[in-house]
Amino acid sequence: MPKTILTEITDNIATITLHRPDRLNAFTVTMTRELLAALKQCASDDAVRCVVLTGAGRGFSAGQDLTEFLTAEASLTVGDHVRQGYNRVILALRALEKPVIGKINGVAAGAGLGIALATDLRVASERASLTTAFIGIGLAPDSGVSWFLQQLVGPAKAFELMATGQKVGAEEALRLGLVNQVVPAADLNPTVHALARQFALGPTKGIGLTKRVLNKAASLSLADALEYEAQVQDIAAQTADHKESVAAFLQKRKPAFQGK
Ligand code: T3D
Q1: Nearest Cα to 10, choosing from 38, 36, 48?
Q2: How far is the CA of 216 from the centre of ligand 1 (A)?
Q3: Does this chain's domain 5-200 share its CATH topology with 204-250?
Q4: 111 lines ligand 1 (CB under 6 A)
Q5: CB–CB of 135/165 below 8 Å?
Q6: What is the pLDDT of residues 75-131, one digit of tens each?
Q7: Tens digit of pLDDT for each residue in 124-171?
Q8: Do residues 29 and 68 make contact, with C-beta atoms less than 8 angstroms apart?
Q9: Which of 51, 82, 86, 259 satisfies CB 3.0 to 4.6 Å to 100 for a cystine?
């Protein structure tokens, strides 16, 4: 059976491509399993210092494969299907202490949107669009969509997007803060590569710890967040890249980060 997830590692950048282009990269159980394995590999491989997540063809991902959904329904509750699949993917993306760039090449819908929003930042092609899609099939949001949208656009806009399922174009997604940057389709690859290269040459541990703090801060009071930052700063201060960057500053040269 052809692989549904392609992983390529070059120049310390792992590019993970969702690969069911004829189905707009809709998720099957196999694809979810292969994506989890790819994320695990990226987490454990020290050579990987930045991850790019994208889709093959004209879509990023259309979410749950609705053909498989019908056949899967009988053996598992929908809730358990979500717990065993999408929830693990979202948590793996957030727990991966390396920068993850969402290269949003086309439509991201349903669980595909949740996965896009779980990346650390998103660069979208002008051809991309986002839709919660769940309501179109009479479902409530899953894959973290309610959580991410509420954080990014506030409760009222989040409700509108989830209750109507309206398609948001790339420029509107930028205006709403759902993506960080929109570029012409032809510029997507070089733009993301330049950004990924910048991250891959950066202080990987410091970036990972930044992600750890951000993940945690969402559920803390200000006082607890301050304390957590102080604890994590103790860890960051022990990294080789921190020591190298201070030395480089004092010696008036560019730091050479090792990602350690
Ligand atoms: O059990 C659980 O885990 C529940 C969890 C659910 C999480 C979810 O993700 S629920 C949401 C599931 N997704 C959807 O409802 C989206 C369905 N797709 C669409 O609404 C549209 O396809 C898009 C808005 C995404 C894109 O529209 P468009 O016009 O650009 O493309 P299209 O022509 O509709 O689709 C192209 C092909 O992909 C088409 O196949 P064909 O006719 O060329 O043979 C279409 O059937 C197929 N496709 C698109 N989405 C899915 C799909 N096939 C299977 N599953 C899909 N989700």
Answers
A1: 48
A2: 33
A3: no
A4: yes
A5: yes
A6: 789 999 999 999 999 999 999 999 999 999 999 999 999 999 999 999 999 999 999
A7: 999 999 999 999 999 999 999 999 999 999 999 999 999 999 999 999
A8: yes
A9: 51
Question: Which residue in the block uniquely carries the two structure tokens 């692989």?
Answer: 3
Residue 63 alpha carbon to ligand 1 centre in Å: 7
Distance 66 CA to ligand 1 centre (A): 7
CA distance 22 to 61: 11
Question: What is the rounded distance in angstroms from the CA atom of residue 250 to the CA atom of residue 104?
Answer: 40
Q: What is the DSSP letter of 74?
A: T
* C-alpha to C-alpha distances, 170 to 16, 25, 108, 123, 180, nearest whole angstrom: 22, 19, 11, 10, 10
Q: For the chain, which residues make up each domain, given as ranges?
A: 5-200, 204-250
Q: Give the model's confidence band at 69: pLDDT under 50 very low, under 70 low, under 90 confident, else very high.
A: confident
Give the mutation target among 23, 24, 88 for probing the ligand 1 site: most ligand atoms within 8 A of CB: 24
Q: Which CATH class is domain 204-250?
A: mainly alpha
Q: What is the pLDDT of residue 110?
A: 98
User: H or E element: which one contains 244?
Assistant: helix 240-250
